[in-house]
Backbone:
């Protein structure tokens, strides 16, 4: 099967909602949002996210199988690019889809003139941390509390784009 990675359009809102809700069900400790809240969103809320953000979707012949997101942040008078909302459906994990989704975000960061890409990850998610390390991300030593659960201290990682 061929996997296609592409930037999400507003018309992809149903697909984005589908994969986002799956991500929140399958990996609830990975995200700042919770399934119960996001499941109540009307479709136009997902359309608005796609209209105002930069999201990538992965597809196989049967439909959407993964997502990643790109954002620009400013902190301490420094602008930087960020990777967030990363997820691949369990059937496709370990088959290179996640690496392709990271590459889509990397390419977008490069186009934006960035040299480094940052992300935050729950360090308890050892498989995710190991994946990011294989993709060239390194722990910066910075920690920040997860917004929805301040008992979780997120690890900041960065990589060259």
Residues:
């Amino acid at each position: 099967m061929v996997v296609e990675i592409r930037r999400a359009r507003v018309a992809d809102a149903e697909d984005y909602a589908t994969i986002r809700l799956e991500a929140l069900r399958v990996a609830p400790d990975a995200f700042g949002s919770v399934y119960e809240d996001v499941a109540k969103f009307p479709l136009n809320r997902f359309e608005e996210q796609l209209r105002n953000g930069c999201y990538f979707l992965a597809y196989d012949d049967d439909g959407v199988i993964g997502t990643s997101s790109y954002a620009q942040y400013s902190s301490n008078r420094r602008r930087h690019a960020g990777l967030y909302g990363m997820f691949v459906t369990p059937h496709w994990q370990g088959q290179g889809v996640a690496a392709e989704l990271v590459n889509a975000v990397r390419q977008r960061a490069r186009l934006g003139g960035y040299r480094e890409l940052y992300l935050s990850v729950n360090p308890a998610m050892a498989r995710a941390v190991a994946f990011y390390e294989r993709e060239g991300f390194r722990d910066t030593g910075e920690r920040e509390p997860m917004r929805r659960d301040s008992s979780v201290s997120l690890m900041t990682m960065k990589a060259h784009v």
